[in-house]
Design a protein that fits this description.
alpha/beta; OB fold (Dihydrolipoamide Acetyltransferase, E2P); Rossmann fold; 3 domains; 8-stranded mixed β-sheet; 7-stranded mixed β-sheet; 11 helices; 22 strands; globular; binds S-adenosyl-L-homocysteine
Length: 470
């Protein structure tokens, strides 16, 4: 007999939220299905409206609270709920830490079936707001309106400067105040918006791919240096000149002022010429005894003080005595390589962005480090290049810090064949780290791990793992 199909239930009452998902949504269970509850916190008992129904789960939003979790915290930002930025503001920081710690253990032990010798407690970030050293804001000729604004039926048109609304590439949430970066970051954004409006400059239209004001990127360092990069969508030189003069005079604290003309379909400018209008071509950041130059295109960890802590854990796990040959894979601008160089005999860094490798060489030289070598190329190719491993001394320690996708299977295989005594695996995605550790398990035991919170108020977590050859 055919089973009758149940009608889709659009509301669920008295639903108990019991967990947080890896994306930071509340998790509940109803009639054997997982329900992801937007803004739900473990301990909440709520009525929800089902927004979408998939085979194994439902997405829902809260319509009524029967009980609010004691783990909740009052969100401090007026844009919370609409902005994709700080999604965990409604959860107390101590609970965010617990959640991230558990996230790492779930991925490694439950999904990856990795056995771990010692689990060190998650390292909290000293700053939980204003910790970012880089923000990019988009200008948009049609801003996003919140459901409250729509309900008030004010005039629903206008420009905006802020962040893209999650899932909407063409809509920007107009930001009044952002807690991500210390001030005067907010003043720079608001000042430029005001000036552009007064001058009648056009704001970018994503559909037409036209408009002068496109994005601004604001970078700062703990040494108090500031960089502003204004990206324009039209080669209107007179207007660009006015913008630059305004920024130079209104923001005298800028160490470095750039503009870039981008008429391509996307906002990335790594492949474009950047024009230095005023000041230095770089800003400086300090980490322990090291100084780094950060250019407009250079990658740098976005929470500097916590990056120092992450690197300290990495260096401690590497257990260096001064005699080791270290490979720093996915070295970026060579920060980890430079950070460990004083305690190693030699460090070899590999990274596929050529300009990052140029930065890495400058950084090493700047700090009087003479025992590093850097190579640009895809890791899978570099490590498999005939002669690369033969021409360089075998590593005693490999530090690897791949992007969110984890390591390429060929890289993992090569690590297994090199079989060096120690690997320190720094990861920004526990799921792919678990996958790679499960393969490395053929030869390596995970001695210890230490999760590190680099991004408070978000669901992201880093994890450092020490692997030893069995
Ligand atoms: N360890 C650095 C950067 C880590 S981010 C730091 O702490 O600052 C990961 C780096 O891996 C990025 O710089 C990215 O450009 C690089 N990368 C990504 N895929 C790569 C690949 N297939 N081969 C080499 N490098 C790669």
């Amino acid at each position: 007999m055919a089973r009758s199909k149940k009608p889709v239930q659009t509301t669920i009452e008295h639903l108990a939220v019991t967990d947080l998902s890896s994306e930071g949504k509340g998790v509940a269970r109803h009639e054997g299905l997982v329900v992801f509850v937007q803004g739900g916190v473990p301990g909440d008992v709520v009525d929800v409206q089902v927004l979408s129904q998939k085979k194994n789960f439902q997405e829902a939003k809260i319509t009524y609270f029967h009980q609010k979790s004691t783990l909740r915290s009052e969100p401090y930002c007026q844009h919370f709920g609409h902005c994709g930025g700080c999604k965990l503001q409604h959860v107390q920081y101590s609970e965010q830490l617990q959640f991230k710690h558990k996230q790492v253990l779930d991925a490694l032990q439950r999904l990856g079936k990795v056995s771990i010798g010692e689990v060190e407690p998650i390292l909290p970030s000293a700053q939980t707001r204003f910790y970012r050293n880089k923000l990019q804001y988009s200008f948009c000729n049609k801003r996003w309106f919140t459901p409250e604004e729509i309900a008030q039926q004010t005039i629903l048109e206008g420009v905006g400067v802020g962040f893209h609304v999650p899932g909407r590439f063409d809509k920007v949430l107009d930001i009044e105040y952002c807690y991500h970066q210390i001030d005067p970051s907010n003043q720079v954004r608001l000042g430029l918006k005001q000036f552009a409006l007064e001058q009648g400059f056009s704001f970018y239209d994503v559909w037409l791919q036209r408009g002068l004001m496109r994005t601004i990127t604001i970078r700062n360092t703990t040494l108090g240096e500031w960089m502003l990069i204004v990206q324009v969508g039209e080669p209107e030189m007179e207007a660009i000149g006015q913008l630059m003069e305004y920024a130079k005079t209104a923001f005298p604290f800028l160490t470095s002022l750039f503009y870039v003309i981008n008429q391509k379909g996307n906002d990335t400018y790594d492949d474009l010429d950047m024009v230095l209008y005023h000041g230095r071509a770089y800003i400086r950041e300090q980490m322990e005894h090291l100084v780094f130059h950060i250019g407009p295109k250079s990658f740098f960890q976005t929470n500097s003080p916590q990056a120092v802590e992450l690197y300290r854990v990495t260096r401690e796990y590497a257990g260096l005595t001064g005699r080791e040959v270290v490979y720093d894979l996915y070295t970026g601008t060579g920060t980890i390589a430079c950070f460990v160089a004083h305690q190693a005999q030699q460090v070899i860094g590999v990274e596929y962005v050529p300009s990052a490798i140029e930065d890495a060489k400058v950084n090493a030289q700047l700090n009087g480090i003479g025992n590093t070598q850097f190579y640009a190329g895809d890791l899978a190719e570099v490590l498999l290049t005939p002669g690369f491993l033969a021409d360089h001394p075998r590593p005693d320690v490999i530090i690897t810090d791949p992007p969110r996708t984890g390591m390429h299977p060929l890289v993992v295989d090569t690590l297994l064949s090199i079989a060096c005594p120690r690997i320190v695996y720094v990861s920004c995605n526990p799921a792919t780290q678990a996958r790679d550790l499960a393969v490395l398990d053929a030869k390596y035991a995970v001695k210890k791990i230490r999760p590190v919170d680099m991004f408070p108020q978000t669901a992201h977590v880093e994890n450092v793992a020490l692997l030893e050859l069995r």
